Amino acid sequence: xxxxxxxxxxxxxxxxxxxxxxxxxxxxxxxPALAILGLESSAEDIAMLRNILGLNKRLxxxxxxxxxxxxxxxxxxxxxxxxxxxxxxxxxLPLTLKVAILTIIMVLIxxxxxxxxxxxxxxxxxxxxxxxxxxxxxxxxxxxxxxxxMFLFSVILKWFSVGYDNTIISLxxxxxxxxxxxxxxxxxxxxxxxxxxxxxxxxxxxxxxxVKSFWLNFYILKNSVIPIIPLIGLMxxxxxxxxxxxxxxxxxxxxxxxxxxxxxxxxxxxxQGLIFYTSVVMVMLNFLIDLIxxxxxxxxxxxx
Length: 304
Description:
Layout: H1 2-27, H2 32-37, H3 43-53, H4 59-71, H5 85-119, H6 124-139, H7 142-156, H8 169-198, H9 201-208, H10 213-225, H11 229-240, H12 244-249, H13 255-264, H14 268-296, H15 299-303
Helix pairs in contact: 1-14, 5-8, 5-11, 5-14, 6-8, 7-8, 8-10, 11-14, 13-14
């Protein structure tokens, strides 16, 4: 019953988000035909293009046609590119997934062992300095960090190329820039979990019964990492739906950059397709996170 409720909520959320996004975009002032042809175009040309694009049809008919197309995976053709929206999204998706996966790997590799090392530090002054550095990492603006990193590592040191050049190596620097604030968030979260787990009754019981410090630390770390599963999901959602600023700085042709182009050119089919795609990704990832979390911690199913 728990999983059935989750599936029904997921389907309803996708339907609701898709419908609302379609209606809101239709209410935006402006004429896509005029945006495509330009201000110097004649009224006859604009009227002809509106007819070709189907903009003269009633709203209800356009909504039904759009909904029917969504069910078959057809989001229509892009006004700007003249290609199927689904093809444009699928072309950008692999690169966005690469960025997301590389960033998550960086965050987990750095944050989990570093959190455990910080947790073992008892000096209060050192802890305050570390907390300040963590707060600094979290609060750094991504555009500033991206520009500074590119100037330092690409222009001065020449370790990386300036921008994306179709290689995995060129993605390491933008992924590192995206990872820094997330590393700070993860370290802060895991460190707090470690301190909570240290005060739990099972920890005292294992310690009193002479469990070796290695295994005691292993249990504490394991139970501290489990609650970050939702945090990983939220970061993954943010990455897959597009880190717009970083994609612009490093010239990465991902989903976020495609969205900017679509909005600037009032490419309604492409904007609608991207919003629906990102909504579906978010809802499905949330469902997947709940599923994994309920398997790891069965108490979740009984509480709901």
